[in-house]
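User: Structure please.
Assistant: Input sequence and predicted structure:
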Amino acid sequence: MEAENLTLDSTAGNAGQAVAVADRSHRQVFKKCRFLGHQDTLFADYGRQYYVDSYIEGGVDFIFGNAAAVFDHDEIHANGPGYLTAQSRTSPDQDTGYVIVDNKVTTGVALALAEVPESSHPRRDTISLGRPWRPYARVVYIHTELPADVIPQGWNAWGRTPGTPTAYYAEYHDFGPGANTTARVSWSHQLAKQQAAQYMPKVFLAGKDHWNPVAAAARLP
């Protein structure tokens, strides 16, 4: 299934869960699409999915589910404080997870420019790269620009997992003011080049049928 140049909008606003798109399909390509909402905007939950040159907006857990999904050259826009992802892999043996590669994470005017009381400095440390909806959540950010609003710890354990969380959260060569890794949670990972290579779109989404999502997207107008 393929979709191009579509806007998919949940107009509920900040009113709790309000899904704009629920995607549970195999070999899905979204190219130059816009996904708009607040909480739970994009339910990327099943199959292999490829989002390229697109825009995804939300505030809380707004990319969530258990698909094997790659977000390639997209803009991920936080319109309020919260969590960018809530991936839900339930077993370490599952080949699912979210890969966010060559993206730009941005924040809304109200979030990025709101003044802290008695200060003229912009608010900071208000968005997390993700939290685990299920125990073995997997999210990897690669070559992605991160704003100053990203919390120094990077990730959140959702407060439900005792000890060291079993989620797999990793980064490789992110950049921007929110990409400083010195204060990242101890259970997250900084990848080497060879490790990051397995998460490139053509590799991570290939499957047994050797699907090439990049080529599939290039065939679209």
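The helical segments are 109-113, 193-197, 201-204, 213-218.
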